Amino acid sequence: xxxxxxxxxDVINVIKKINMKYQLLFVGLLMLGVxxxxxxxxxxxxxxxxxxxxxxxxxxxxxxxxGDNAAVTGGRGTEELTDFAPTINVAIPLNDDxxxxxxxxxxxxxxxxxxxxxxxxxxxxxxxxxxxxxxSEKDTWFGFSANYSHSSDDRNTIxxxxxSFAIEYDYTSIGFGGSYTRLFNEKNTEVQLRGNVFIDFWNxxxxxxxxxxxxxxxxEFTGTTNFAPDFEEFVDTDRNSYNVGINFSQILSxxxxxxxxxxxxxxxxxxxxxxxxxMFADIVDTVVEDFTLGNDVEKLPDSRLKxxxxxxxxxxxxxxxxxxxxYRYYTDDWGIDSHTFELEIPIKLGMKYxxxxxxxYYTQTEADYFNGFNQALxxxxxxxxxxxxxxxxxxxxxxxxxxxxxxxxxxxxxxGLKSINVEFNQYSRTSQNFxxxxxxxxxxxxxxx
Amino acid sequence: MIKKISLIxxxxxxxxxxxxxxEYEKVKLNDPxxxxxxxxxxxxxxxxxxxxxxxxxANGGKTGGGCGCN
Lengths: 449, 70
Hints:
The complex is a heterodimer. By secondary structure, chain A is mainly β. Helices cover 10% and strands 50% of the residues of chain A. Chain B has two helices and no strands. Chain B has helices at residues 2-16, 40-52. At the A-B interface, β1, β2, β6, β7 and β9 of A face α1 and α2 of B.
């Protein structure tokens, strides 16, 4: 028997030690890997879905207004209008992080002032305070939009893209945009950047007296036959809007949070409304039956820069009372400055029911180009008699009611009813004879798990 | 203009320096009526307001698109 040389034994021991080290290293790496995988799985398991289940919102509004200063008839005439607008909005969670929202709306309106684009197609005498009939009396607007949003795993970053399409008889609008939102400071601070572009196209409808073939001589009229010395059809019928906005939101305490909102909008193209008449003070009026014919349609600059800055602050006062406040300052390069104040006080009646009294005050200065009925001069470069651009104050009073059940105990098919919201608002201008009423109802359903 | 921007930045930065409210302390802030975004009813309201009033924007509603001419 031959004894092993001592050097071989040492080599074997060294090799064993190295193996042991490698084994320990391997086991260590394995444990680290399992641990990291486990942590990753944990973070996936505990990541809350941005939207748990598909949500369907069915919204509907009814709006009516009346006043004496219709822009279609040069700032004097009925503004009677009704609008019924149902909307369906579907939010679909594509996975834990991504949500696709699709919105389809219809707005069906009847407008007495629009009917007076042609005031001579009715049965009675033409009169700016009497609704005419014909195609321009009513129209339907269709709108579609889609929004896709993605949230990061830690929910501190959200980006979204959106597109929209809307069409009615004389107007088409295509829009697209996006936003980037970042949350900081344990989600106490939020900054959002937004951008949108709208590419719009007019199909201009001019007042009947400006269309070829109109002959005032077939009517009973006073004044001159040369009633529209300045009228020319618009050559450029596009309108583009470019919007960028920044939101900054901050939690101030356990019961107060605030948000500063800003929007800058640049518009260019045809910013006039082609069927809104203007009557000049320095041109003899032509009155057919009881209707004053236009001397021109409104002419407004082909660009407008709008800046809006706002603050919204919400206070959780008690278990039953919340105060929601809003203020906005607006200015543009057409000479309009406005202030908007709004207060809403949600009052909770038990766990599921809330009522919402609200008040809103609005005031604006008039546009540089505004003139009342028959007050613009034919020598002016720009003019309008649209009283929406006049100086005025407005008050709005509202009352809403909400049923809210996050557990969706009431089932309808494969969906649970999450909330019902009904709201009524009355709006009036103090310096003009103008009143409007707005009623809305909204139902939100959530798909059952 | 630079002074105004600096002042606004200081105000914003001072707001962020408030003590952070923890997630478990946000019960009141998470109430649906405390949300800073507009409700659906308010979005519909702001649409008709943007048609009838000369101003728009900074309210979560429409900022462009559409003639608003009815």
